Amino acid sequence: MPVGSQSAGEAGRFAALTEALGILYGGDYNPEQWDPATWREDARLMREAGVNLVTVGVFSWARYEPRPGVRDFDWLDEVLDLLHAHDVAVDLATPTASPPAWLGRRFPETLPVDADGVRLVAGSRNHFSPASRIYREHALAITTDLVDRYADHPAVRMWHVGNEFGQVCYGEESAREFRRWLVERYGTIERLNDAWGTAFWSQHYADWDEILPPRRMPYHVNPTQSLDFRRYSSDLMRELFREQLDVIRARDAVRPVTTNFMGFFPLVDYWSWADDLDVVADDAYPDPGDPHSPADAALTQDLMRSLGQGRPWVLMEQAAGAVSWREHNLPKSPERSRLESLQAVARGADGVCFFQWRAARAGAERFHSAMLPHAGPDTRVHEGVRRLGADLRLLRPVVGTTVPARVAILFDWESWWAAHELARPTVRLDTLAQLRAWYRPLWETGVAVDVVRPGSDLAAYDVVLVPQTYLLDEHAAERLTEAAARGASVVVGPFTGVADTDAQVRTGRFPVLLTGLLGVSGEEWVPLPDDGVTLALDPRWGSGVDVVDARATTFAEALRADGAAVLARFAGGHLDGLPAITRTTAGAGRCWYVGTVPTGPVLERVLDDALRAGGVGPALAVAAEVPGLEVVRRGPALFLLNHTGVELDVPVPSAATDLLTGSEVSGGRVRVPATGAVVLIEDG
Ligand code: GAL
Q1: What is the pLDDT of residue 576?
Q2: Rounded to whole angstroms, how far apart are CA atoms 248 and 255?
Q3: Beta-carbon neighbour count of residue 141 at 10 Å?
Q4: What spacing in Å lies between the alpha carbon of 495 and ligand 1's midpoint?
Q5: Where are the domains positioned within the chain?
Q6: How far is CA 281 from CA 60, 163, 510, in A?
Q7: What pTM, to 2 d.p., does this model score?
């Protein structure tokens, strides 16, 4: 099969697995750290906890291949047989994230080089250069032998390629690969010179061989060079993934294959990967100390569902308690761990797994929580794990179902990368922060949202939000125009459409490709003083709504209304009297432009306007009035998730049954326990 020839149409492979097992439940299991007596205890405790799938072998390469070319798989035979005997299925990993120490010693060129030219060494993990031919040959060799040996093992039900791809190398071999990638992209050196704008600072290249990765330089790096290096690095990692995927597919056409993503991870463009996966998988470690983490986690989960284009996804890793890699690691309570797991299921996950099954005694992660803590099964954490296993069995009716959304929020990695060059009007306008700020009010009101790549078909959406898409091409602009023409609400935020795909600024009044659509245009970017600027709202727009603290913060734009109605103006400062927020009609739809970062209540007003115009409402009307209550509809179920520390009494429209307790809900109200959840199936 040719490289990367999988398609989204293969989602049935994963469905076959969940049809057999229900919601996948388990975690990373590292038997190489334990003796056979412990394996036996693990298998028994897994079964008792309702675990049905564990990811094995992520970091086992040195154990499989202790010396070059030697193979030692016998111990794994025993582990897989044992797990199978206990009805625990295996997601078998290719061990390529952490090569044995001998590889780097023998072939130093397999080790990664950082931007300062320092070659990193073995002793941790991820010590490989994705550009290294020798590393890749060895990775494929061990993958081939592993897959050959276990493709027919009955315990193996899924394949897991590598771990958290995200390695970048600035060394010589990577420089050669980068040049190859550039030749493919640009064809001629002059085309590259144009795209990179090398007339600036005497950066012109006469020959491909002069080009280097953006290593440490005396001053600012060329922004397009930096953007292309990110594109190249992401493509290179995808190539590594695909090579291993092809080894698996050559031997096994049936079992699903995945690799674990990391949410809004900055080094890989997951849009370009998702079609290669039978199921999207995510590793998520929300900080229990961050009050925004429930909303931000929901956004990440919506991204994972959206990457799979409506297919289910799995939460591949999370912590049962505390992580050990922050400076100060607040633990989660078992209740919170359960709630976060149910939140993932509500948002489309068909698997809930942890890092890791048994807490390590040694190594860099010995203080990381696990499903089975150091203190053993007689612990609050493990009791919580057993309870969650039982809960997930009850949620089987939602397996394979989707979360219908009529709101799209645009996000893409290339724009994020390009917008984050050091030299820009302000580093305080952050693409991800903007995305999160626009998402939160929708989360609070219980409105379902898909995360959508600019340029995608928007036909399914009645509201399209563009918090900040810095790079915008003609096609993506056209999609927005089409959406408005057929009646959707389109809301565009600041610093959008600034650059083309070469990261060069589009000249003319901005946002250049959208001024006609929006009826407004701008001429100057204006970072704001720390206390911001007052916004004067048009009384007809603001009336009846208590908008306290109407301010523009962080960043603003000097705008001129070219036909759009002005909903808010800057009052004071450099932009005094100029429009800040506008609205216009476009075809059958409406468009808003938000030329600043408004305070929460003002942004909520804009979004509320857009939702009303688009005819989009929440999953449950009351959600907005109960702070901390998250409401999501998935398939036949209505999930009510209580992120507060007190019980909530929630009015519900019809008689229903709670899947988690089996109890009937009638009389129009349901009690949702503190840090707990209710999953309703409406009667009839
Ligand atoms: C993930 C990783 C796991 C483990 C975990 C700890 O990034 O895939 O192997 O290190 O973090 O939180």
Answers
A1: 98
A2: 9
A3: 14
A4: 35
A5: 8-171+213-398, 407-614, 623-682
A6: 20, 11, 38
A7: 0.97
At 167, the amino acid letter reads Q
- Residue percentage of the chain with pLDDT more than 90: 93
- pLDDT tens profile 584-623: 999 999 999 999 999 999 999 999 999 999 999 998 888 8
For the chain, what percent of residues have pLDDT higher than 70? Answer: 98
Q: Is 165 in contact with 263 (CB distance < 8 Å)?
A: no
- The per-residue DSSP string of 15-47 comes to HHHHHHHSSEEEEEE-GGGS-HHHHHHHHHHHH
Q: What are phi and psi of 379, to 5 degrees?
A: -140, 160
Gap between the Cα atoms of 74 and 63, Å rounded: 11
Q: Report CA-CA distances (Å) from 617 to 432, 445, 610, 622, 669.
A: 25, 9, 11, 11, 20
Task: Identify which of 156, 167, 352 has the alpha carbon closest to the alpha carbon of residue 268.
Answer: 167
CA–CA gap between residue 469 and residue 467 (Å, rounded) = 7
Residue 15: name the closest of 344, 338, 310 by CA: 310
Q: Tens of pLDDT along 174-196?
A: 999 999 999 999 999 999 999 99
Give CA separation, 188 vs 180, 182, 501, in Å: 12, 9, 17
How far apart, in whole angstroms, are the C-alpha atoms of residue 497 and residue 506? 8
Q: CA-to-CA distance for 581 and 597, rounded, in angstroms?
A: 10
Q: Give the homologous superfamily in CATH for domain 8-171+213-398.
A: Glycosidases (3.20.20.80)
pLDDT digits (tens, 9 = 90+) for 657-672: 999 999 999 888 999 9
pLDDT at 623: 80
The mean per-residue pLDDT over the stretch 624-634 comes to 94
Burial class (CB in 10 A: 0-12, 13-18, 19+), 287: middle
Residue 666's pLDDT is what?
Answer: 86
Between 548 and 270, name the one with better pLDDT.
Answer: 270
637-642 vs 629-634, strand pairing mode: antiparallel
Residue from 164, 324, 329, 356 whose mutation best tests the ligand 1 pocket (most atoms within 8 A of CB)? 164
pLDDT, tens digit, for every residue of 74-124? 999 999 999 999 999 999 999 999 999 999 999 999 999 999 999 999 999
* CATH fold for domain 623-682: Immunoglobulin-like (2.60.40)
Angle between the N-to-C axes of helices 380-394 and 36-49, in degrees from 0 to 180, rounded to the nearest 10: 50
State yes or no: cis peptide before 511, omega within 30 of 0.
yes
The pLDDT tens digits for 263-321 are 999 999 999 998 999 999 999 999 999 999 999 999 999 999 999 987 889 999 999 99
Domain covering 407-614 in this structure, CATH number: 3.40.50.880
Check 65, 164, 243, 444 and give the catalytic one: 164
DSSP for 516-578, written as a single string: HHHTEEEEEEEEPPTT-EEEEE-HHHHTTS---S-EEEEEEEEEEESSPEEEEEEESGGGTTS
d(CA 130, CA 110): 8
Query: Which residues have CB under 6 Å of ligand 1?
Result: 163-164, 283, 285, 317, 323, 355, 365, 368
CB proximity list for 507: less than 8 A, separation 6 or greater = none
Query: Beta-strand (E) ranges in 142-292?
Result: 156-160, 257-258, 260-261, 280-283
**585 CA to centre of ligand 1 in angstroms:** 48
Judge whether 317 counts as a catalytic residue: yes
- pLDDT at position 30, please? 98
Q: Which of 65, 177, 243, 317 is catalytic?
A: 317
Model confidence at 8: pLDDT above 50: no
Arithmetic mean of pLDDT over the chain: 96
Around Cβ 411, how many Cβ atoms within 10 Å? 26
- Check whether 6 has a pLDDT greater than 50: no
Distance in Å, CA 49 to ligand 1 centroid: 22
